[in-house]
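Let us walk through a complete example step by step. Step one is to write down the protein sequence. Step two is to encode the small molecule, adenosine-5'-triphosphate, as a SMILES string so that its atoms and bonds are unambiguous. Step three, shown after the inputs, is the structure prediction itself.
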Amino acid sequence: MSEPMINKQKVTTQTLMRWIFGQLKPYKRRVILAIAALIVGALSWLLLGQGVKVVVDDGFVANNADKLNQMVFVVLAIALIGSGAAFVRFYLMIWLGERVSADIRKQVYSHLLTLSPGFFEATRTGEVISRFTADTTVLQTVVGMGLSMALRATITFVGALVLMLITSPMLTIYVLIAVPVVLLPIKFLGAKVRGYARDSQDRVADMGAYVDESLHEIQTVQAYTHEDVDRRLFSQRIEAVMLAASSRIRFRAMLIALIMGISISAITIVAWLGAREVLSAGISAGELTAFMFYAVMAGGSVATISEVIGEIQKAAGASERLLELLNTKPLVKLPESAMSMPVQVDGALSLQGVEFAYPSAPMAKVLSDFNLEITAGERIALVGPSGAGKSSLFQLLLRFYDCTQGQILIDGIDTRQLTTNTLRQQFAMVSQESVIFATSAYENIRYGRPDASFDDVKQAAKAARADEFLALLPDGYQTNLGERGVRLSGGQKQRIAIARAILADRPILLLDEATSALDANNEQLVKQALDELMHDKTTLIIAHRLSTVVNADRIVVMDKGKIVAIGSHQELMQGNSVYRQFAELQLVN
Ligand SMILES: Nc1ncnc2c1ncn2[C@@H]1O[C@H](COP(=O)(O)OP(=O)(O)OP(=O)(O)O)[C@@H](O)[C@H]1O
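Step three: the predicted structure of the complex.
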C-alpha cells in the first residue's frame, strides 16, 4: 500500500478567488489605486463615445468647423487621461500579479521545508519544482492581466449599456436579447477548459521531473550511452504535454470563435436595425454612431470577460496543485505545548520498547523490541547486515518519523514533548555521502551555525584537518565548491562535512561512516577529524571500519530490526556469530 502523500482535491472558482483575494489583502492600497485607475480609464473611453457623437452631429453633420476644432481638443484630452489611467492600472496590476506569485512561492517553499523526508521520497523533485514555477506563473497572469481585464471589461460593459439605453432604448433591448446567447457557450465550454488545464499542468510537471532526473544523473546517462532512449522517453512526455494542451486549446478556440461569431452577428443585426431608424429619422446619425461605438465596446467587454474566465479556469487547475502542496501535512505531530530543553544538554539517550514500520509499508517492522540506554558522552558503534535498520534508527532519533510503539528520551525528556526544531538542534549529522552545497567552503562549514565568525569557521576547519587544503584553493575559504562539491576529493568532502558538525557543536552526533576506502594519508586525516568531532559528545556511529569499532565504548549488533548483542570487539568476536561474520567480511581494515 502506498501512502497518499499529496491529497488530490478539487478547487472551485470560488475557493480560488477567495485564496487570491486573501493573498491581495496586504496590498490593499495598491489594489484600491489600481481599481480607481481602472474606473477612470473605463469612464474616459466611454466619454469618448459622447465626444464622437458631438463631433458627428454638431460639427460634421451641422457643418460647424469651430465646434469641430473645439471638440477635437476635448477628445484628445479625454484620450490622454485614459492613457494615463491605463499606465497606472497596467503597472499596478502586473506588479500585484508578480507580488502574489512571489508570495505564494515563498509560502510553498517555506511549507515544503517542514515536510517529512518521506514526502520527498514519494514525490519527484522535478515535479515539485514545476508546481513552483509553472503553476505560480499561471496565477501571476490571472492576477496581473486577467483580473484587471475582467474588472475593466465589467465597468465598460455596464457603462456602455447605460449610455446605450440613454442613446436608444429600443436598440438596447435588441442587444440585450443577444447577451444570454453569448453567455451559454462560456458556461459549457469553460468547465471543459478547466479540466484540461489541470491535465496539461500535470503533464508539464511529469516532463520537468524527467529532465531533472536525467540531467542529475548525466554521467550514468552518458556512460551507458542511454541518450537515444532518453530522447525517446522525453519526447513521449513532451507529446503528452502537447496532447493535453491541444484539447485545452481546442475548447478555448471554440469558446472564443463562438463568442466572436455571435457578437458580430448581433452587432450587424443591430446596426442594420439602427440604420433603418436613421433612414426613418427615428434617431440621428450621431446617435447611431455613438450607439454602435458603445455596442462594440460592450461586445468587446463580453469577449474579454469570457477570455478571462478561460484564464481563471486554467488557474483553478493550476492552483489545485499548489493548494495540494500547501495542504500536505508533515507526518509527525507536534505537541500542543512544547517543552524546552535545559540550557545544558548532556546528551543521554534512552530508547524504550521502540517499534517502527515505515508508513508506506505498515506491516513490515523495521525495528522491534528495541531497548537501549546510552549515557552522555558514550561512543556507540552500530553494526549489522544491510537492511538491519541502522539508518532507520537515525531517522527516528531525528524524528523524521514517529515510532509506532515505545518512546525515545533525551536527558529523560520524551522527544514527542519537544518541537522538532528543539529536538533536532541536539543532533549533528554526518552522512555517508558527504553533503556539499554549491557555495563557498566558508558557507558550507558555517551551515550548522550561520552566525559563526570567520575565526570559528577556521578553527573548526583546523580541527577537522581541512584548513590546510582549503588554504591552498584559489580563493581560500571563499572558493566555490561547485554543485555537490565536484571540485573536491572524497576525503576532502568528508573533512568539510566533519568541520560543519564540529562548528555546529551539538551534544549528540549521528555518523554514518563512509564505506569507500581512502588513501592512507586521507584515511588518517579523516580519522583525526572524527576524533576531534566525537570528543566529549554522545556518538552513534554506523561503523564500517575496524578502527571505529575497536575504539567504541560499546558495539551494538543489529539484525532484522532487533539488537542481537552488545559488547566490545573482543567479546563479540568470541561470542557472536553475526558480528564475527560481519567483522570478517565487511569492516574496512
Ligand atoms: N523510506 C523507506 N520506506 C520503506 N521502507 C524503508 C525505507 N527505508 C528503509 N526501508 C526498509 O527498512 C529496512 C531497514 O533499512 P535501513 O536503511 O534502516 O537499514 P540499514 O541497516 O541502515 O542498511 P544499510 O547498511 O544497507 O544502509 C529495510 O528493509 C528497508 O527496505
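Step four is interpretation. The longest strand covers residues 349-356.
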